[in-house]
Write the C-alpha cells for this entry.
Amino acid sequence: MSCSLSWCRSVCEDVDYHVRAGGGRNRLREWSPETKVHCRFLYAAQANCLDCVRKWVEEGASLERGSSNHAEWTALAWAEHHDAREVADFLRQAAMGRYDVPASASSVPVLRSESASPPPPPFCAAATEDEYCHVARQKTRERVRGMEKEDEKHYLFLHAASANCVECVSAWLARDADLAKGTMNTEWNAESFAIHGNASALLGFKWTTLFRMLFRQKSRVRGS
C-alpha cells in the first residue's frame, strides 16, 4: 500500500498495524486478500484512527458490511462498542451522505436510513475472531459445531457466561438469548454456568445479580 498523508503514521509503516494492535494478528493468514482489506477498515474504526477510517472510506470501504461471522458488526458498530467517538461521529455523517467521497474512490458507500434501528452490541474481540473461543474443550467444540443452529447459539451463550465474558453475554441477550433455558440434558442455565465458572467471584457477585434482574425483566415482558 502506498503511503500518503491520509494514512496514519503507524499504518504507513505497517499496513496491518491496527489489526495486530486490536487482537486480530492470529487471523491474518486465514483471511482472503479482500477480507483482509475490509478487516483493516474495521480495526481502524475500533482504534479510533480517524485518518485511516477516512482513507478507507475514500478507497471505497463498505459502511454496511460487517465481519465474516456477524453481518451486523459494521465499522460503526465496532467504533461505538469501543467508544471510538471521533470515528463513530464521522461514520454516522458518512452513512447519511454528509461526507463527500472523492470521485476517484472505487465505490460509493451505501447510505443508511436515519430511522434505522441501531445494531445490537458486538461480541468481544476474541469471539469476533473465533466464535467458539469460550468453549474450552476441543471435544465440546466439535459437539457444539454439530448442533442445530439455534442450539449452537444457546450453547455459545452458556459458555460465554462460564467464561465471565460480559461483552458476549450482553450481545447474546440483545439477540434474545433465553436466560432460563438449560442444556439438552440438564437444567443448567446461563446463571448456573456463570456460577460454575466462578464468574460470580470475579465480579463480586454482581454477575448473578445481573442475571436475576434481567430474568425478572424479561419474564415481566413475556407475561404482559
Summary: The chain is about 50% helix and 0% strand.
